[in-house]
Structure formats: C-alpha cells, structure tokens
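Hi everyone,

Forwarding the result from last night's run.
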Amino acid sequence: MTTDNLILTGPQGVGITSLCLGLSAAKDELDTPLDLVSKRFYWLDVDALFASGDMKQINEGFNRALKTVTRSANTVLIIDDMRDFIDGAQAHGVRNVVNALMRAARRSKDLQLIVECRDTDLPEVLKCHSSMHEFFVIKEVREPRTEFMDAIVAGICRTLEVHHGVPPRPRRAPPPSSSPRATTRRHSTARSPSAPSS
C-alpha cells in the first residue's frame, strides 16, 4: 500500500466495502505484506456524525475523529459513502468538514484516506473540493470474472468445511431450460365498443 489517498468507485453492490473490510482482516494473515500489517484502520460513521443535526456538535465530533486518526502513524481512514458525507455536510451547513478532511490529507504524511462512492456519484465527489484530483487516485472496482468468483467460492467452501467439519453439498446442475411456449394472439382490426383502447 502506498500513502496515496484512494477513491474506490464502482457500481452498487460490486463489493467496495467488502474490499476495505478485507484489507483490515488481512492483517491477521501470515503472508500479508508488512506495510499493510502496520496500518491502523478506522471507519468514519457518517450517520452518527450528522445525527445530532447541531452544527457545533458535528464540528466537534469531526475534529475529535481527525485528532484520533492523525495521532498515530500508518493510519487509514475509510469513509464508506463519500456522497453521504458531502450531502450531510451541505444539509447541515458544515461544509467546512470537507475542507478539514482535505487539510488533514494534505498535512499528514501518516494518514491515508480511502473514500468509497458509487460510479454514478463520482462526478459529485470530485467536485466537492478543488484538490480532489490532486490528493486522490481513482480506482475503479469491477465484478470479478467468473473463474475468479469460482475460486473465491471454492476457498470459502474449504474454510467453512474446516471450521464446521461438514463438507458443502455439491452444486446441482441447473435444470434443463425448457423453451417457453410461444403464445400468439390474433389481433382483430374490429373493436367492440366496450373494449378499452390501448
């Protein structure tokens, strides 16, 4: 992992949040690179940040969060929906929290930001601050190809089998596709007076 800040973007449901959770969980694996093992992961709870609706409480809460993550070295702050963060800041009149986040990204060499957003929200996220292009690298996350998905599922099955001591059931072949009956309608040009017009 580099110290570059990342925007992870992709279609909804592609697994961006799972990818970030996997990075944190990978710290416990024996073959994980040392630079990832040394990272401390924090998630910003955007809903809790804006829950009070009070500008002063929001600012104080965000400043406390920034102090926490910038206090120690090799810290990663993950914002799991940057569009929600931006919208919440605008809705509550605390646009300055976006500026404070960007200042922290600029000043702290030990802080890495990973922000997640749907591909449809990327233009709005990039417009939220003039330095987004300067301080963030955009990484598009796509669905894995079928052969990778098969390997992932096989690995999960092995893990579950070891953990539970029960082998998974073999995958059933899909039923043969029966061709749907072609239904034809005879259309008449004559219409009865009670028939609805289309």
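The chain has one domain: 5-147.

Cheers,
N.
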